[in-house]
Amino acid sequence: MGNWQTQPLTLPSVLAMVLGAVIVLVLALGVVTYTIYVQRKLLGWMQLRIGPNRVGPLGLFQTIADIIKLLIKEDVVPASADRPLFLLAPVLAFVPSFLVLAVVPFSAHHVFTANLSIGVLFYLAVSAITIHGVMLAGWASNNKYALIGGMRSAAQMLSYEIPLGLSLVGVVLMAGSLNLNDIVLAQQHSGWWNVIPQILGFLVFLVASTAELNRTPFDLPEAESELVAGYHVEYSGFRFAFFMLTEYVYLFAMAGLCATLFLGGWSGPWLPGWLWFAIKVVLFIFFQFWLQATLPRMRVDQLMTFSWKVLLPVSLVNLVLTGFIKAFW
Amino acid sequence: MAHLFQAWNNELFLVIFLILGILLPVGALWVLGPMLRPARPNDAKRTTYESGVQPFGDAHVRYHARYYLFALLFVVFDVETLFLYPWAASFHQLGRFAFVEMIIFLFLLVIGLVYAWRKKVLEWNE
């Protein structure tokens, strides 16, 4: 099953692809389940609490219990909601979050990864579809909190999409390819992980990706203290679970993207590739939770102006600098 | 020919991901869900949530024009980014001339950004 990508299309190779996709799905769901557990544990420790410790040893089955609870909860659709759109929104938000995992190279042999020549572009284009799901949820709920949350979310994701995309252009320049696997190979070849030569781009990416993921300090779309929960106020049961799932699958995917583009992906000495990749992903996710425990939420006006007045110029400077060095060195 | 197969294999893999990604929510929400969850809706449950008070009016109202301005700016700069990707990917073949060209392109866009900045489009509270 190792090289289904180079084989002619036969029934076994198609079955291998289906199996690979199912494995990635199970992996993503497992990662999400335990990311939520680790998040609650870490936040607990950082706030001098114990965190979940009741269900199973050390509370290890807490998230599984939560998922089962959500699955057997009644699914309420408000009378004034736009029913078809209300039902469509969580699906529209979730599907792209899983689809982007198809291009993230988990290991050197990219068994579970499409070796797509436009990987970076594919990730950005597909992940942008989720904004529609979030906006539709806010609009279709016919709830004022949800509408404000959805609109804010769209404004924020649009604004931070620009610096995020521009910070990746520097990486593409370094590698001369949009293929995520080639970008890893280029880093391995040059001996530098992109985080060193692309430090400006990395910082912009780190901030912009936090905002894209709607994580603290950029969690305004969900600001509990003013919008209750933002775009998913009216969602209950498993539909709500799909919005949460989307969020955490994106956390995983974004961690994979960060590891691939800036931290050398699966490359590293001694250890096997997938383990290096896992270490880098865990570091990124840990950093996000650390931020969540440390920083307060930003104000809306600060949020918007920061993207356009700070991140955008910095990413342009990074781009010109990288191009200059590439052209004249 | 082998190369062609390789290209199509990748696209097929993406289609499988897409199908699987649709099957999971559809299966969980429309097949598995109805078997497990109760369905006893009543009027109180189905009212819109508004922090406990009776909801008044509709949420489908007009909202502030500043969202529109940011969307417009987004389109300008997103298209710019799209132009930059192929440029960056083939930069090592294009050489210094392409670099100068891109500097001119970026310069024109920065003028646009400065204009928006001076016009206070980037301010949220105006």
Q: Helical amount among residues of chain B, as a percent range?
A: 55-70%
Question: Helical content of chain A, roughly?
Answer: 55-70%
Unreliable spans of chain A: none
What's the total count of β strands of chain A? Answer: 0
Tally of helical segments of chain B: 4
Largest β sheet strand count, sense and barrel closure of chain A: none
Q: How would you describe this structure to a colleague?
A:
- The complex is a heterodimer of chains A (329) and B (126).
- In chain A, 67% of the residues lie in helices and 0% in strands.
- By secondary structure, chain A is mainly alpha-helical.
- The longest helix of chain A has 36 residues, at 11-46.
- The model of chain A has no long low-confidence stretch (mean pLDDT 85).
- Chain B is built from four helices and no strands.
- The mean pLDDT of chain B is 81.
- Chain B is flat, with a radius of gyration of 25 Å.
- Chain B folds into two domains: 2-46; 65-118.
- By secondary structure, chain B is mainly alpha-helical.
- The longest helix of chain B has 35 residues, at 2-36.
- At the A-B interface, α1, α3, α6, α10 and α12 of A face α1, α2 and α4 of B.
Observed structural traits:
heterodimer; A: 329 residues; mainly alpha; 12 helices; 0% strand; B: 126 residues; 4 helices
Outline the fold blueprint.
The complex is a heterodimer of chains A (329) and B (126).
Chain A: H1 11-46, H2 62-71, H3 83-99, H4 119-127, H5 129-140, H6 144-175, H7 180-190, H8 199-212, H9 224-227, H10 237-262, H11 273-294, H12 300-328
Chain B: H1 2-36, H2 66-89, H3 91-94, H4 96-118
